[in-house]
């Protein structure tokens, strides 16, 4: 019977471990591969992105011209340009169409290698991975600027403190001006002015849109992280409620494609708010005036293989001889938490900081990030900050953990008595359980107390996992030695002799059948350290009375080592350090209790 139970326990443990590899990790990579294949299958020449119209469909603006795919450098040459040069951005604005369609993030690179390419955020309409933002006016019976309009610029370079104004005359009495300003971060301010000298009144509506062609090849399919269209709508007007009282809209790329199959769009009406497209670490978002009534769309167009988020403001009456002016903002850059929060407060943009996907438990995850970030500012290393945070968490939970470890230590000291009871009542399970409960009550021991520290750690573990996974502050953050990126798994593995052989084995993940085995063997040094510390902690715990349960618990360090190996190195380091502190705390309690047990009754303390 015991051999059969042991076999069942081993089989279940292996099933959990292999299931994790095949059903959690492998599908993620398969979805990425499928998305890439889907993009390659699209016909190159497809209808282009649709310019949003006003709230009346018959007033829709003209469509863009047909799209052709060119290398990015060649696509940039198709329009005269105004350069963008800031401490953190490089790129240009296309004078043809007045689009922000060329942005490179100066301070971020594709990999941890210092000479790897800088991150390209936006690309022109005719490039392979076109991604751009533009602005405009829609209306009927009036010539308006569109994607073919070539604007005139009063300067060659947009920089902080050096605005650029683009102008265009429609030849019928309407003059359009668009002034671009940019700060030291990633925020553009766009001021539009329309002057009517036509001799008759006109009605026009402002719009803004963000268009992205193709599903990003590295878009996450994980439920832990949102990537795709995002926005905040139906915001409460100032004085009527909390400043962040908005309804959020988050639609994954797969959601958008599914909605497109039904011929629909996600439509929102709102006073103020914002909308855009979010990547794991980057964001492009249109931010209209917060006192403006908007009609917004989010949709995917399968014929052209593009995603679009857009808004249209209410129609504006422009009498002859007068001008109208409106101001809005465009964010295009890295999702740095403190900077998004500052923009939220200075521009009164509700929930703009929530563009970082802290999840439904953001009230726990975000404070933990701020604590970690403040520690980092003091120690200068996020790895050390994680170790310090672990100490703070252990200190906060010390009373609970101390009581729990005290109970567990007493349980371990009671092992001889428990063994004696099992030998005496082994054939009478009911009597054995009765005597065990009597022993626990007599010795004031709670056998379930050992679970409390682990249960309390779960929210902290989840919050830290989210922080490491979604915040750009953790991206490429080094620790010491071989850990160059705390947000990535430990790069060492038995497959590269723990870093001694300089080769990248990750391409083997995509090989059928072999990929699962590669996942199984991808265990770095830190996961092994974490597994050892878990084993050491479990050795200090009392052995469960049930033999099968005891064997299963004995396999847990082995199982968790394989399960946590693909997680962020920072998370594994946190768990290893937490286990080490727990072992030290528990050893101290056991040492003190053993001394008390050896003292003769009546001895002085």
Task: Walk me through the structure.
This protein is an alpha+beta fold. The protein contains 14 helices and 20 strands. It has helices spanning 2-41, 72-76, 253-261, 337-347, 362-379, 382-396, 398-413, 415-425, 429-443, 451-470, 514-521, 525-540, 547-564, 569-598; strands at residues 81-85, 89-94, 99-109, 118-122, 131-138, 152-153, 157-158, 164-169, 174-182, 187-196, 202-213, 228-233, 247-250, 266-271, 274-278, 282-287, 293-301, 306-313, 316-318, 323-334. The strands form three sheets. Strands 6-8-9-10-20-16-15-12-13 form a nine-stranded antiparallel beta sheet, with no helix packed on it. Strands 5, 11, 14, 17, 18 and 19 form a six-stranded antiparallel beta sheet that branches. Helix 1 (2-41) crosses helix 11 and helix 5 crosses helix 10. The longest helix is centred in the first third of the chain and has 40 residues, at 2-41. The chain is elongated and about 105 Å long. The two termini are 49 Å apart. Mean pLDDT is 80; it is low at 1-14, 20-48, 53-62 and 237-243.
């Amino acid at each position: 019977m015991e051999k059969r139970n042991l076999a069942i326990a081993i089989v279940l443990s292996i099933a959990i471990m292999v299931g994790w590899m095949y059903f959690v990790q492998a599908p993620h990579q398969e979805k990425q591969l499928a998305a890439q294949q889907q993009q390659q299958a699209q016909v190159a020449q497809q209808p282009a992105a649709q310019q949003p119209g006003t709230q009346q469909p018959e007033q829709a603006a003209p469509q863009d011209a047909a799209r052709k795919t060119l290398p990015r450098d060649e696509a940039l040459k198709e329009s005269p340009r105004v350069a963008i040069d800031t401490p953190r951005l490089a790129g240009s604005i296309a004078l043809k169409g007045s689009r922000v369609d060329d942005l490179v993030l100066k301070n971020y690179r594709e990999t941890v290698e210092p000479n790897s390419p800088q991150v390209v955020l936006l690309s022109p309409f005719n490039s392979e991975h076109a991604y751009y933002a533009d602005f405009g006016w829609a209306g009927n019976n009036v010539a308006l600027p569109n994607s073919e309009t070539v604007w005139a610029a009063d300067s060659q370079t947009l920089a902080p403190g050096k605005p650029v104004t683009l102008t265009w005359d429609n030849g019928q009495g309407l003059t359009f001006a668009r002034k671009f300003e940019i700060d030291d971060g990633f925020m553009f301010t766009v001021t539009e002015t329309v002057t009517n000298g036509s001799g008759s009144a006109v009605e026009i509506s402002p719009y803004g849109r963000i268009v992205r062609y193709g599903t990003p090849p590295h878009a996450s399919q994980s439920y832990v992280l949102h990537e795709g269209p995002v926005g905040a709508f139906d915001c409460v007007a100032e004085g009527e409620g909390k400043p962040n009282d908005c309804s959020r809209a988050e639609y994954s790329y797969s959601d958008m494609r599914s909605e497109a199959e039904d011929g629909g769009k996600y439509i929102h009406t709102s006073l103020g708010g914002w909308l855009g497209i979010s990547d794991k670490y980057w964001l492009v978002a249109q931010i209209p005036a917060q006192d403006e009534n908007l009609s917004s769309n989010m949709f995917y167009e399968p014929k052209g293989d593009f995603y679009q988020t857009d808004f249209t403001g209410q129609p504006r009456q422009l009498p002859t001889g007068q001008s109208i002016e409106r101001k809005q903002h465009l964010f295009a850059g890295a999702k740095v938490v403190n900077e998004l929060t500052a923009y939220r407060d200075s521009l009164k943009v509700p929930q703009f900081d929530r563009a970082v996907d802290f999840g439904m438990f953001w009230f726990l995850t975000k404070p933990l990030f701020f604590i970690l970030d403040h520690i980092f500012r003091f120690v200068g290393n996020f790895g050390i900050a994680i170790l310090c945070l672990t100490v703070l968490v252990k200190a906060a939970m010390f009373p609970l953990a101390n009581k729990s470890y005290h109970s567990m230590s007493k349980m371990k000291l009671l092992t001889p008595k428990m063994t004696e009871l099992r030998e005496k009542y082994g054939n009478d399970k009911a009597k054995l359980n009765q005597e065990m409960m009597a022993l626990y009550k007599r010795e004031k021991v709670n056998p379930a107390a050992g679970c409390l520290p682990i249960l309390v750690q779960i929210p902290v573990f989840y919050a830290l996992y989210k922080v490491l996974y979604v915040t750009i502050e953790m991206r490429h953050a080094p620790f010491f030695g071989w850990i160059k990126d705390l947000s990535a798994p430990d790069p060492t593995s038995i497959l590269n002799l723990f870093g001694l052989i300089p080769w990248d084995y990750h391409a083997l993940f995509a090989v059928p059948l072999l990929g699962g085995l590669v996942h199984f063997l991808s265990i770095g040094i830190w996961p092994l350290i974490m597994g050892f510390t878990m084993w050491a902690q479990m050795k200090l715990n009392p052995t469960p009375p049930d033999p099968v349960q005891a064997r299963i618990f004995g396999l847990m360090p082995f199982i968790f080592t394989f399960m946590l190996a693909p997680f962020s190195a920072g998370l594994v380091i946190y768990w290893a350090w937490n286990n080490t502190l727990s072992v030290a705390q528990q050893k101290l309690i056991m040492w003190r209790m053993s001394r008390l047990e050896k003292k003769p009754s009546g001895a002085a303390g």
